[in-house]
Amino acid sequence: MEKPSLKETSFAMNMNSDHTRKTVCVFGTGDFGRSLGNKMFQCGYSVVFGSRNPELSGLHPKGIEVLSYTEAAQRSDLIIIAIHREHYNFLTELAEELQGKILVDISNNLKINQYSESNAEYLAELVPGAKIVKAFNTISAWALQSGALDASRQAFVCGDDKEAKQRVMDIGRSIGLTPMDQGSLKAAKEIENYPLQLFPMWKFPLYLSAALCVFYFVYCMLREVIYPYIQEEKDNTFFLAISIPNRIFPGLALNLLALVYLPGIIAAILQLYRGTKYSRFPNWLDHWMLCRKQLGLVALAFAFLHVMYTLVIPIRHYVRWKWSSRIINQIKNNKTDPFNTTTAWLSDSYVALGILGFFLFVLLGITSLPSVSNTVNWREFRFVQSKLGYLTLILCTAHTLVFGGKRFLSPSILRWYLPSIYVLSLIMPCTVLVLKFILVMPCFDQPLTRIRQGWERNSKVSKKAQLGNGKNEV
Amino acid sequence: MEKPSLKETSFAMNMNSDHTRKTVCVFGTGDFGRSLGNKMFQCGYSVVFGSRNPELSGLHPKGIEVLSYTEAAQRSDLIIIAIHREHYNFLTELAEELQGKILVDISNNLKINQYSESNAEYLAELVPGAKIVKAFNTISAWALQSGALDASRQAFVCGDDKEAKQRVMDIGRSIGLTPMDQGSLKAAKEIENYPLQLFPMWKFPLYLSAALCVFYFVYCMLREVIYPYIQEEKDNTFFLAISIPNRIFPGLALNLLALVYLPGIIAAILQLYRGTKYSRFPNWLDHWMLCRKQLGLVALAFAFLHVMYTLVIPIRHYVRWKWSSRIINQIKNNKTDPFNTTTAWLSDSYVALGILGFFLFVLLGITSLPSVSNTVNWREFRFVQSKLGYLTLILCTAHTLVFGGKRFLSPSILRWYLPSIYVLSLIMPCTVLVLKFILVMPCFDQPLTRIRQGWERNSKVSKKAQLGNGKNEV
Amino acid sequence: MEKPSLKETSFAMNMNSDHTRKTVCVFGTGDFGRSLGNKMFQCGYSVVFGSRNPELSGLHPKGIEVLSYTEAAQRSDLIIIAIHREHYNFLTELAEELQGKILVDISNNLKINQYSESNAEYLAELVPGAKIVKAFNTISAWALQSGALDASRQAFVCGDDKEAKQRVMDIGRSIGLTPMDQGSLKAAKEIENYPLQLFPMWKFPLYLSAALCVFYFVYCMLREVIYPYIQEEKDNTFFLAISIPNRIFPGLALNLLALVYLPGIIAAILQLYRGTKYSRFPNWLDHWMLCRKQLGLVALAFAFLHVMYTLVIPIRHYVRWKWSSRIINQIKNNKTDPFNTTTAWLSDSYVALGILGFFLFVLLGITSLPSVSNTVNWREFRFVQSKLGYLTLILCTAHTLVFGGKRFLSPSILRWYLPSIYVLSLIMPCTVLVLKFILVMPCFDQPLTRIRQGWERNSKVSKKAQLGNGKNEV
């Protein structure tokens, strides 16, 4: 054990004294191995490839040698393993050459959690004498070749040996990446799963809004297209392009926004009921709370579409025809519609409420951008996402209520006993607002605040805890 | 002094060789202490709590021990002090146990600058033999418990001992935070104030725009609602929803944008007058210059609202009724309004200027996002914020001027001798543009440029400085 | 060589033990040197200036000394060289004093690549015994003086000596900057060029769109203004404000978006033709591929303008006059335009397609924000930029096609044999979509996928490579 360590130290010293021609060894001449090797070569490293059939590997730039694994390993104390996990076992034969060296595992799997342990930990088991560093698996070969690092320059790195990790991070930096230290080799599993994910937090919000969308669509089709066709033989199919989406989208936006705040209310009720915040929430509630940001952004997308669909109303052929024919009818019948101040109030109010609600919604969206939310502290974040968020929900609910206006009371809006879609859309947000209103009343708010500061109803420490009033209680 | 140091070194070596079961001690079983302890326990640390009444502290996961302070301190060389500052003094009794150990101060205060020295520095005074690190106070207990680190993952860390700081940053990283090294323990005060702030830079812009808003509102109410009611008994109260906001918001946006560029002009005049850039500006000017970004973003918000309020004009009940009745009147009187090219030019120009101005305004807003402004260099930043900014101001001022059009000359727009609100709104931006125009004339621009490169009118070094022409003068 | 090293070590130890009064020396009392020195002094450093004429340098805060170069150098082991490169040569005389010390090169040049080697490397040649660190050249003197670090707090640092680099980065951090380690001194050239650049990646997209813009403008002027004037003596010049821009901008947006996807198609055809991905693309194609993001953002800007210009249509004087006179004509001629379902379908569809296309376009824009694209992995980035991007192109092309509608077939739209501008605008996006459609057919897609995984048609390794199916082939 002593000898390789000594040899390695002297080698490392040579390396340090010879900054310009550091040698890196790459095992495997596949696409990613070649891309990485060539990139390092371009950036001033001396690169040696190790291959099963060195004589078969063509197409390398001048100055890059392809040797057998054993020969290549002897050239460098840092070896990048650009080989599939399934073929790792040949490395056990090279145990002696790899002793004390830095092995960089850059492998990816085809599925999330494909193996019980991460590839890097498996490598560490196979070659116990080596220092394993997981790195570069999140970078694409194409990005390295083209230099287009538009997506992520972030190269997650983890490993148990600090100096080895530092060496690998230095290489990453010198080829234009931003290495991110993720801690010990235990993080390798997460790093290996990372590039296989496709928007994991977005799945629930997107599926939920798709399901709601289908329900709303069928409902609107029944009321707006099929009913007029059956009852009056009117062909309203062209409503499919704008009119019906513009009934679905606002309803979706409002309900999804309400669903952002519902889990917080359920959690508060649970905490009040249980009298403690230390027992875990059910899994579905946990997951729901974690994807509230995504839910809110999907709601914002629908709100944006609703705004656009509303603003184009006056340039639609159908609307212009309707407005013209109303004017022509007034003249033909020789009576002018009088100006109605109440209607003007209602019309202007619902539009103004909608604009203010949308404005705050956009503000919430902007503050959820990673670079913006990183610059605010928790107090500011809570102020924006909770206070401004509820204000947005109130404004948008009021917008819908005023839009309905007097029509709520008239039975003529029922078609086949179905109320207009905006009536349905109001159930959820109104419920959330009523529950929230109840929860902010002092009789519920005070015990809840105490519970959230760590107080527990049925606990021997409860009395003591009540003495403290901040978060760092003795 | 020698002994503890030696003991500590050997202990630290043990720690390093035993990566999997590092022990961390937490003093205090309050909410934040428990959240942090449990989180570290989940992430593979062995955690020991220290408490005044160990037997009273319930509800810990299996594997976490609660001991007396002394016993707990002996188990680890890193102790997290999850205790209010007011109770720190008991730590002096443990001085021997804490000798040479890392103490992590995570405390917060209730008010900004509550004490003359930071809690961490106070701790350092109390336990002079320990290595104090300030950390984690910006993280919320809820975020740790739920794993929802949507807001800031940034954990500011400072301390005088580099290795101690590194240890704490490693812990932060392993529990999912992004530690940010803030330097020596002197930074603790700022770190402790940070979570207590609520948008400090936004206060002046928001108060200013609120005051302007109230003034504009009263002014508009007088002209648009009270005047018609008194003179013509017309009920225009429904103007409150859209018409009046849409007169207030563009005026506010234009004036706030002008106020973004006014301090730069005042500074230039001051520098020209004083003949040097090295004497300090008055405090109010300094503060004004530092919140120009926030002023500009508030102006952008009002501009956005103005755009929305303008685009909904054709779907307002009042506007549709007005347009209809105009058409009906033309027919009744059997005379058709002829098409007027000049009016078409004016109408289209002011709309086009407004759109272009808003477009540049949005562009300025996007480039002020932290992640975008971080990718541009100073030359590019100045180009966008100065050149494009002035172009935006010019376009928006021209938009308002052309909107006024011929009406400026007609006395009929005065009501109670009050001109329209857009006339008032033009005073500030026109003043700023005229002053800027004067300042870019060579007779003022040349001495100003020299002053900004370090030249001083009344200085013995002035002649020498004139020889250089860059920023790194000899 | 031994002695200075020893001396330096003992000095460094003194420095470490004396955290509160670290001394930094600044050579040169120009603007930037003074700004940096004063800032460090404010942040608790003891600062000494070195100057050619110490007695001439006035205006320093109390506590800052100005000495001769030799005296100043003896006070500190870290010297900031705030001097123009042209005057570096006097440093050779101080070689003995500078031996083993850290020299921080903060100089900038006036032009990109002004000298063959970077200023920092030139300094390293002049004073071979010193440790050179390049830093702070990207920070502006004004930012340091005012504390307004709105633009970039990033201070790029590079150097061959790790400890020296660390010292400089610590100073940077303590004066409020975010030091970014850029690796060895070789990076100095890039760091020196950085502050001189003005949006280098935006040049091609902006010039291209300017050229297209001029062509479209002349074309539209001919058809919409000059033709009606000559043929019908109609004065349509007011079209210049809105009507003509609203024909140019959508065409530009659509064509620039198509040009984002064209280089990828050309590259695929080249790779299929060559049978390998390892030979380099022509330079123009490489450059084109690297500025696709900027091309797309310019296209988004034009799409945004198109949306705004479209939404204001109903509030334009000309449009309102046209709509009124159409209604008046209907009444005068006593015949009412019947409602046409097909026209309603076409009108609503092209508007709906446009809104959806614009929505996806905005989504693409948001995901290209640095802070957003940094949080997605490569799979997600490719999904958004490729799948959603092509969907955007399809929607926008369909929007234009449906906008044309039946008019494509009518010869009356030709004026002087010139078709409407939207017909021209469709050529490029349709070509791109047809080519893409051909390329995704299995007969082309399969060999292309293999080529992109590293397979080569004319290579001895091709058979072997076919065995692997991931990126890390053995």
From TrEMBL, chains A, B, C:
Gene Ontology terms describing biological process: copper ion import; fat cell differentiation; iron import into cell; protein homotrimerization
Keywords: Copper, Endosome, FAD, Flavoprotein, Ion transport, Iron, Iron transport, Membrane, Metal-binding, Oxidoreductase, Transmembrane, Transmembrane helix, Transport
InterPro entries given in the database record: Fe3_Rdtase_TM_dom, NAD(P)-bd_dom_sf, P5C_Rdtase_cat_N, STEAP_metalloreductase
Domain Ferric oxidoreductase stretches: 252-396
Spans through the membrane: 206-230, 250-273, 294-315, 349-367, 388-409, 421-444
GO molecular function, one term: electron transfer activity
Cofactor: FAD; heme b
Record flagged with keyword Cell wall biogenesis/degradation: no
The reaction(s) this protein catalyses: 2 Fe(2+) + NADP(+) + H(+) = 2 Fe(3+) + NADPH; 2 Cu(+) + NADP(+) + H(+) = 2 Cu(2+) + NADPH
Pfam family, one: Ferric_reduct
Gene3D superfamilies in alphabetical order: NAD(P)-binding Rossmann-like Domain
Membrane topology: Multi-pass membrane protein
Subcellular location, record wording: Endosome membrane
Every Pyrroline-5-carboxylate reductase catalytic N-terminal domain range: 23-109
One GO cellular component term noted in the UniProt record for this chain: endosome membrane
Stated family: Belongs to the STEAP family.
PANTHER family attached to this UniProt entry: DUDULIN-RELATED, METALLOREDUCTASE STEAP4
Annotated protein name in UniProt: Metalloreductase STEAP4
The organism of origin for this protein: Phascolarctos cinereus (Koala)
The encoding gene: STEAP4
